[in-house]
Amino acid sequence: MLDADGVARDLSGLTADIDGVFLAGGGIRRVREALEAGTLPVLADPRPGSVRPSPGPARWSASASTTAPTPLSPAPSRPPSRSCS
User: Fold this and answer.
1) What is the domain extent for residue 20?
2) 37 domain-assigned
């Protein structure tokens, strides 16, 4: 996260993931308190952009239960419908 001065701060001391459990458990309050106390370290290697979510267990179990090969490209889209008026 970026502080008020635009410096990237490391939240790993507060949470491994910003998810529902973190947010429901007062995570934002804890981040605010740590910022105010000056206890969040500067992030050593800030990378721009958002982190992509990792697939959850349901996705893994569904993909692991099939023997179909992983497609190399997305499925082709349907052609536009042609309606007769």
Assistant:
1) 1-44
2) yes
